[in-house]
TrEMBL record:
It comes from Parasedimentitalea psychrophila. Its main location: cytoplasm. This is Arginine--tRNA ligase. The lineage of its organism: Bacteria, Pseudomonadati, Pseudomonadota, Alphaproteobacteria, Rhodobacterales. It comes from the Bacteria. It is found in: Cytoplasm. Residues 5-94 form the Arginyl tRNA synthetase N-terminal domain. One of its GO terms (cellular component) is cytoplasm.
Length: 581
């Protein structure tokens, strides 16, 4: 159930009636008519912009439309008042019984409360992490992993058919660098002293890989030229790193549906097929690009290349797909990869990139638009950097120096649940400070603790009720006399519960899972406030052995909060706490 959708349907029905009785002209576009919470809760429970968005087309004053619409709405038993405000906004108040029924709706639906069919089963591919397979995942990858995984779960909850995908960047020169670095560790495993030249990976994480290579091939590659061992060591090293990466992801609770190898695009005709598809649309040509911005002409040598007319699909400049020497650019396999996604029948594509890929957004969107003839939208979400702090000092990381902070380091220090929740306490494109002391702090200022404590507090209360011989099953609580939930604080919690289905739809539509974390914090805050009021008001006390009817009503409300918190945390990939330790 989505109460805001229900009331919007009532508004639309009322507008249709106004058309039928001649108050409004026929043919009005009602798509922009919205029903949402008012900016100031004191103004009402909901507000609609109907009069404002229809006035021009209807050739009427907004207030005249609002007055007529208000008269229609108050005829419905759910509406107690509809008041015109300002130039024509309509503030709506609902009957108290509507809010009192919310806990039962939650209890009846369980964890499916708020689940939506908005996605209508459309196939969505969410590609995230996709780190180069050159070492363990670091904290920057952690944010993209958490964001992408939570977004995938959110879309699933909203009715989409979601595929989680990891693109293995194993086709470029960085994997050759990995192979050379592993070879050095291999020689080291044979007792040789080695030095890591600039451009190699000196991290200790490759020591075991070098030993494993020795165990596999013995001394077959010792002191051999690169052409003897490079390809074999490249494959061996990439496989070893992907085992490590899969384990890292699993420690964070991330499980991919598909791993797609960039290398599989080379020598198979797939890149050629994608470029041929664009060529058939008249979008490939031979040309010379203008010098890059900021470059002096004498620093730039004009070369004829094979170019993609990406400007015809919203890009700023056309992009090269093949170099003057006949080699593919980095962009070409990415085009082929997304062509494969389109060919697999996805209705929507979402890529989660690091902030350093901002310059790639327009060209990639142009490619997908061209390949799908505009049918398949591509949304690219950029995740900003994470700064780690411990003991007041900022961690620095450098993958090449081997001193970076890994995903596993963070999970080992604070746990997967804390890591995931904290990574979603800021919008993806905003920088995030991750302070190890603060994320473990037991206070209201720590959102993950505050939300978990709310659920643990409810679970503790339910256990106390059992000790007192009070039935707490959902069927019993759903049958409670919910008209006893009459206090303003109780109604406020019920109203917050009623926002959950709407929040899910908005977060899924905007691809913003952080909204779920924000909502859960607000819901937890309302719950904690109500709990403390019960210490001085027996009617609000969750367990009051002298008034079992009030207890069942209060427990029904508390249990409904626990269900929604559990559903929200489930979307974020966080296990709800049953007790706090």
């Amino acid at each position: 159930m989505n109460l805001f959708t229900d009331i919007r349907s009532l508004v639309i029905e009322s507008l249709d009636t106004m058309v039928s009785d001649g108050t409004l002209p026929a043919g009005l576009d009602l798509r922009n008519v919205a029903v949402e919470p008012p900016r100031d809760a004191a103004h009402g429970d909901m507000a609609t912009n109907a009069a404002m968005v229809l006035a021009k087309a209807a050739k009427k004053k907004p207030r005249d439309i609002a007055d007529a619409l208000a008269a229609k709405l108050v005829a419905d038993d759910r509406i107690t008042s509809a008041e015109v405000a300002g130039p024509g906004f309509l503030n709506i108040r609902l009957a108290t019984s509507i809010w009192q029924d919310i806990p039962k709706s939650v209890l009846d639906s369980g964890l499916d409360f708020g689940r939506s069919d908005m996605g209508q089963g459309l196939k969505v591919n969410v590609e995230y992490v996709s780190a180069n397979p050159t070492g363990p995942l670091h904290v920057g990858h952690t944010r993209g992993a958490v964001f992408g995984d939570a977004l995938a779960s959110l879309l699933d909850f909203a009715g989409y058919d979601v595929t989680r995908e990891y693109y293995i960047n194993d086709g470029g020169g960085q994997v050759d660098v990995l192979a050379r670095s592993v070879y050095l560790r291999y020689l080291e495993a044979h007792g040789q002293e080695v030095a890591f030249p600039d451009g190699t990976y000196p991290g200790d994480y490759l020591i075991e890989t070098g030993k494993a290579l020795k165990d596999k091939v013995g001394d077959a590659y010792v002191d051999q030229p690169e052409d003897v061992w490079l390809q074999e060591v490249r494959t061996f090293s990439t496989d070893a790193m992907m085992v490590l990466i899969r384990a890292d992801l699993k420690s964070l609770g991330v499980v991919m549906d598909k791993f797609y190898s960039e290398k599989s695009l080379y020598g198979t005709g797939r890149i050629e097929a994608a470029i041929s598809e664009l060529d058939g649309k008249g979008l490939i040509y031979q040309g010379v690009l203008e010098p890059p911005k900021g470059k002096k002409p004498e620093d730039w040598e004009p070369r004829e290349q094979t170019l993609f007319k990406s400007t015809e699909h919203g890009d700023d400049v056309d992009r090269p797909v093949k170099k003057s020497d006949g080699a593919w650019t980095y962009f070409a396999p990415d085009i082929a990869y997304h062509y494969d996604k389109v060919d697999r029948g996805f209705d929507m594509l979402i890529d989660v990139f690091g902030a350093d890929h901002g310059g790639y957004v327009k060209r990639m969107k142009a490619a997908v638009s061209a390949l799908s003839d505009g049918r398949v939208p591509l949304d690219i979400k950029l995740t900003q950097l994470v700064k780690l702090f411990k003991d007041g000092q900022e961690f620095k990381m450098s993958k090449r120096a081997g001193t970076f902070v890994t995903l596993r380091d963070v999970v080992d220090l604070v746990g997967a649940d804390v890591t995931r929740f904290v990574m979603l306490t800021r919008k993806n494109d905003a920088p995030l400070d991750f302070d190890f002391a603060k994320v473990l702090e037991q206070s209201k200022d720590n959102p993950v603790f505050y939300v978990q404590y709310a659920n643990a507090r409810i679970c503790s209360t339910l256990r106390k009720a059992v000790v007192e011989g009070i039935a707490i099953d959902d069927a019993t609580l759903g049958a409670a006399d919910l008209t006893l939930l009459a206090d303003g604080a109780q109604i406020m919690v019920a109203k917050k519960l009623a926002e959950w289905p709407r929040l899910v739809d908005i977060a899924a539509r905007t691809h913003e899972p952080h909204r779920v974390a924000f909502y859960l914090y607000d819901l937890a805050s309302d719950l904690h406030g109500l709990y403390h009021m019960g210490k001085s008001n027996d009617n609000l006390r969750f367990v009051n052995t002298s008034n079992q009817s009030a207890t069942h009503a209060n427990l029904a409300l508390a249990r409904a909060v626990s269900i929604v918190i559990s559903a929200g945390l489930g979307i974020l990939g966080v296990t709800p706490a049953q007790e706090m330790r």
